[in-house]
Amino acid sequence: MPPTGANNSLVRARLTIHHPPSGSSHTLGGRIDEVEFQFNPNQLELSRSASWYAQRAVGFDRGAQQEFSGADPASLSVEVFLDSSATPTTPEVRKKVDQLLSCCEVDPESLPTNRPSPPWVRFSWGGFSTVQFIAYVESVSAAYSLFSPTGEPLRATCRLSLKEIPTPTKGQNPTSGALTAQRVHRVVVGDSLPSLAWREYGSATRWRAIAEANGIDDPMRLRPGSELLLPSADDVRRGRERERGGTP
Fold first, then answer.
1. 44-86, pLDDT tens digit by residue?
2. Distance between CA atoms of 40 and 60, rounded to whole angstroms?
3. d(C-alpha 131, C-alpha 78), whole Å
4. Which of 34, 87, 93, 155 qualifies as a FRET site for 182, CA 20 to 30 Å off?
């Protein structure tokens, strides 16, 4: 059954699906798709752990001395309930399940690179920042529970397991304003800053971030063959928060 009252929520949980970065970058690539939750989850399971190494020494009579060896990636488990029984002629449930299953398949655009990879994702739910991190989908399972007379699935419960993708430690001088990561894009005919911003950040209105990073005055005039630095999505988000007077 769907979570009680979830359909009345004003803020929807969502899973944004991105192309993986090229090379060793930890910056999300352009957005592929987005799965907005039809019903908000009634439970999230978040786990995080740290690794310690036991260094045995004669001088300790109550066990071995422990040494910290690193933080482990976070894991997030979430359940997605899908229901299109009110519109039984649409393949909405099947399409959304296919979107989620594709997160465990290699992204075709990554095949020419040296590091083929499935898409990277980011789960978000309003201001619940604790569960918002870049991740890959470790597993997806779908249980179908209702079908149309033609066999079209009308109801499904999907269980997702996300594993955090570790990112480099933040810079030593957080007030410097330096970009944490960038990606290089070679301009082709038809490119514009709004179109690049849409592909990279999911919003054409964020073209100013690319313009500022490259010292561009006219966003519509780009020279084919030239290279542009694309700021990371996190840098763009922090810049917008600073403009609004918020805390990055």
1. 999 999 888 776 666 666 667 777 777 889 999 999 999 999 9
2. 51
3. 11
4. 34
